[in-house]
Specification:
205 residues; mainly alpha; 8 helices
Length: 205
């Protein structure tokens, strides 16, 4: 790599900061959808730049479609005709964000578990832990292991995956408020989901 040129992985923190900044700008501009949309795009770019694992991407796609498709079927009849295309575009981007986050997490997971294969992915996902060791050491050893695992690539990628999913869920609350019914339940659930998502993104830097 030539001097002064960053690798894709080195761009990830910058892209995360751009996403956070766009979210903050959207808050200041009283929820401008295009600003939040660009924030989602920045997060997608960050996940892609960090590396994508195809099997996790496939599983992420299936999971998002499984719980996203019914939501879209419920939402679309409440959307006015001129807004259907923009809503579909927004849904596509936020769905892509979660799928890319799953693929990014998978990339970090496979790097940490090189023996992972598509045949035993489910077993390894169930058995894998962020804490090194088998639990046979003392409590002080376990505490040290937990502390050392906090900033591993896998734990960072998991924070970003969780943040993406929470952001997705918060947008559902916004959509319900804008298109279905205005209720105190929308901000009651949506705002905590949104701000926790942003904090998780910030904690992944």
């Amino acid at each position: 790599m030539a001097a002064g040129l960053e690798t894709p992985q080195e761009l990830v923190p910058t892209l995360i900061v751009i996403g956070l900044a766009l979210g903050w700008l959207g808050d200041m501009l009283l929820v401008v959808p295009s600003t939040f949309l660009l924030g989602h795009v920045a997060y997608v770019a960050a996940f892609v730049a960090s590396g994508i694992e195809q099997h996790f991407t496939m599983f992420g796609t299936l999971a998002v479609v499984a719980h996203g498709a019914p939501i879209l079927v419920w939402l679309l009849p409440h959307v006015e005709r001129p807004m259907k295309l923009p809503v579909l575009a927004y849904v596509f981007v936020i769905t892509l964000m979660v799928v890319a986050a799953a693929g990014s997490y998978g990339h970090s997971f496979v790097l940490e578990h090189p023996s992972l294969s598509c045949d035993n992915v489910a077993d390894q996902l169930l058995n894998a832990t962020l804490v090194t060791g088998t639990g046979t050491g003392s409590s002080s050893d376990s505490s040290a292991a937990i502390g050392s695992a906090v900033a591993t690539p896998v734990s960072i990628a998991f924070r970003r995956l969780l943040a993406a999913e929470l952001f997705f869920l918060s947008d559902i609350c916004v959509a319900r408020s804008k298109c279905v019914v205005q209720s105190f339940l929308n901000p009651l659930f949506g705002l905590p989901l949104y701000y926790v998502a942003q904090l998780l993104f910030a904690a992944s830097l």
